[in-house]
Amino acid sequence: MILEKPWGVIKEYTLNQISTVKMLLVAPGGQTSVHHHRLRDDMWVILDDGLEVQVGEEVLHPKAGDEFVIRAGTPHRITAPGEAGRVLEIDFGFTTEEDTFDRESSEDD
Fold first, then answer.
1. Cα pseudo-dihedral 75, 42, 84, 9, rounded to 10
2. Model confidence pLDDT, tens digit, residues 55-68
3. Do strands 100-104 and 34-37 pair parallel, antiparallel, or not at all (unpaired)?
4. Which long-range CB contacts under 8 A does 96-104 form with residues at least 24 apart?
5. What is the pLDDT of residues 20-53, one digit of tens each?
6. Is 66 exposed, middle or buried (0-12, 13-18, 19+ CB in 10 A)?
7. How far apart are CA 25 and CA 80, in angstroms?
8. Rounded to whole angstroms, what are the CA distances from 77 to 9, 59, 99?
9. What residues have CB less than 8 Å from 97, skipping those under 6 apart?
């Protein structure tokens, strides 16, 4: 939900939902494994330019401020081909290790 105020805007990502909020920092040259979640959706808010995002078979080069919703069952990965980059991740649903399935390992796991 987006709320406009006299001083600016409030962007609300989750309200009274079961969710987990994380700040991911991908090191220069680092990448997460390609993985998917069986039970939960993820949302990524890209905070820095220069990252590469894989969602399903699509590889994207987002800009800071871009947002992605990754539905349960969709393989995904974040890569920092140059400098380090930050991503705000919001997990919707219960977060458990058993819910994450690796398709491909990465040395950075």
1. 140
2. 999 999 999 999 99
3. antiparallel
4. 96/39, 99/37, 99/38, 99/39, 99/40, 100/35, 100/36, 100/37, 101/35, 101/36, 101/37, 101/38, 102/33, 102/34, 102/35, 103/33, 103/34, 103/35, 103/36, 103/75, 104/33, 104/34
5. 999 999 999 999 999 999 999 999 999 999 999 9
6. middle
7. 9
8. 30, 9, 16
9. none
Tokens standing for 92? 């919707």
List 86's β-bridge partners, or say none: 25
Question: pTM for this one?
Answer: 0.85
Q: What's 50-96 look like in SS3? A: CCEEEECCEEECCCCCCEEEECCCCCEEEECCCCCEEEEEEEECCCC
DSSP tag of 3: E
Domain positions in the chain are: 18-95
CB-CB neighbours of 78 under 10 Å: 21
CATH architecture label of 18-95: Sandwich (2.60)
